[in-house]
Specification:
The chain has one domain: Rossmann fold. Helix content is about 35%, strand content about 20%. The chain has 8 helices and 8 strands. β2, α3 and β3 form a beta-alpha-beta unit. This is tRNA (guanine-N(7)-)-methyltransferase. GO terms for molecular function: tRNA (guanine(46)-N7)-methyltransferase activity. One of its GO terms (cellular component) is tRNA methyltransferase complex.
């Protein structure tokens, strides 16, 4: 029996307009690098045409992190999940321009993709970098990291997989660590209630640079499945 869809507010609002170049990139390149998600289980080997370590980035924005990591690690496959057309168009154009073959894009709500599309234990790394913090108290329920979502992330992770997160919004960092430390299927790699040092391999994105300009501290978290 299929799981019942999670009933929760969306953690995103679609904003922004695509440029002509971004629109053209989507029209021309989506058949090669886009994944049309219809609620069915995804065959990742068929999608990428090989078997390799799999990394999923939730909400890749303008794609700085996704593109840089895919370029650095051609031996890994990267599935980017995003709803904003401008970022998708930018990434598709960059995939073509940089000659990358190890990125595929899903334009859909990430929670639904994890709920219905990703086989259990199929992902080696999940990245959630600088998600919308929804700072107003009345919007906190829209935050992506919630107990029910944490359970979906755990299910998708391979036994030796890693969940990595980062934010420049301290109240959201505290919320993340509270939710994820309480999830019995996860182990905080820094120890309970602690953040990890910034990973050397994590590219600096515009969101991080903006946060630093505003004087915000950057908080990194890392979890493995409990054994």
């Amino acid at each position: 029996m299929e799981p019942s869809p999670l009933v929760r507010p969306r953690s995103f609002v679609v904003r922004g307009r695509k440029t002509e170049a971004q629109t053209r990139a989507i029209e021309e390149l989506w058949p090669s690098f886009g994944v049309d998600f219809d609620g069915s289980l995804l065959d990742l080997d068929a999608i990428f045409g090989r078997t390799a370590p799999r990394v999923v980035e939730i909400g890749f924005g303008n794609g700085e992190n996704l593109l840089t990591l895919a370029e650095r690690h051609p031996d890994r496959d990267f599935l980017g999940i995003e709803v904003h057309g401008a970022g998708i168009g930018r990434v598709l154009g960059a995939i073509r321009d940089r000659g990358l073959a190890n990125i595929r894009i899903v334009r859909h709500d990430a929670v639904e993709v994890f709920e219905r599309g990703l086989p259990g234990g199929s992902v080696d790394e999940i990245l959630v970098f600088f998600p919308d913090p929804w700072p107003k108290a009345r919007h906190h329920r829209r935050r992506l990291i919630q107990p029910e979502v944490a359970r979906l992330l755990v299910r998708a992770l391979a036994p030796e997989g890693v969940l990595r997160l980062a934010t420049d919004w301290e109240p959201y960092a505290e919320h993340m660590i509270e939710v994820l430390d309480a999830e019995p299927g996860l182990v905080n790699l820094a120890g309970a209630a602690h953040f990890v040092p910034r990973p050397d391999d994590r590219p600096v994105t515009k969101f991080e640079r903006r946060g630093e300009r505003l004087g915000h501290a950057i908080f990194d978290l890392a979890y493995r499945p409990a054994r």
